[in-house]
Amino acid sequence: MRDGSPQGIYKVQALDRAFAVLDLLGESDTPLGLAQVASSLQLHKSTAHRFLMVLERHRMVERTSSGKFRLGLRLFDFGNRAIEQYDLRERAQPHLRRLVAETEETAHLCILEGAHVIYIDKIEPARSVRMITRIGSSNPVHCTSVGKAMLAFLPEDRLVDILRRTRFERFTHRTIATPEALRVEIEKTRRRGYAVDDEELEEGLRCIAVPLLDAQRQPVAAVSVSGPSFRVTAHKLPSIANHLLQCVRGISMDMGFSSTGRGHRAAWTA
């Protein structure tokens, strides 16, 4: 539904103007001062200043030592991630299909976005019990195996920031409900090399995930296998984890992250 209210129209105009600021800075060969931005976009200085402050706060623009503005490096990061994710999904698909054939359960490919995971691909087996997740949907990090898998391999400063932003909502009686409990689970994940969602998001559903690490051993994504807890039993987890490891190793090699997949920790025993 379109929001035709004055407030809704103002929000759209504000977004248009914010993007106009980014376009202007992107087209300029040199950093621009506040007066130049305001004049070029026919904005009052106070309005242009407001937009620049918001964009600076989100690291979309940055200020030089002379007080002028240029595009921020966060945009570079976004661009790299967009290219990477587009390529990632395409390159991961044959490995995900193989994983589904081996485990006969649903496979997900997810990325980290703030304190949530985003499902960017999903492949299901020819089974009667299927997952209700959909591509593009999201879930919190604290109660998903893919979330915990990526958290376990993040630098400490990013981990602290995400824990601070996480709302520890309970979905089942098994959901992790505190930052301290999540840190304990993250440490378990580091030691064994894979993460488990033991009916923490949905009763009767068990998931296991392994992170996909880049050449700097930073988590780019995570791959999971999910299914009903009566099929994905605790006894099967090490075997499924081995299939997951082979899957992410294959994706890693195809993406050029590593030639051997040695960046992935796998400390479990079959």
Structure overview:
It is built from 8 helices and 8 strands, in the order αααββαβββαααβββα. The chain has 270 residues and is an alpha+beta fold. It has 2 domains: 6-71, Arc Repressor Mutant, subunit A, CATH 1.10.10.10; 81-255, Beta-Lactamase (2-Layer Sandwich). The strands form 2 sheets. A 6-stranded antiparallel sheet has the order 5-4-3-8-7-6, with helices on both faces. Strands 1-2 form a two-stranded antiparallel sheet. Helix 2 packs across helix 3 (45-57). The chain is elongated and about 65 Å long. The chain starts with 5 loop residues before the first helix and ends in a 15-residue tail after the last helix.
List keywords for this structure.
elongated, 270 residues, disordered C terminus, single chain, 2 domains, six-stranded antiparallel β-sheet, Arc Repressor Mutant, subunit A, Beta-Lactamase, alpha+beta
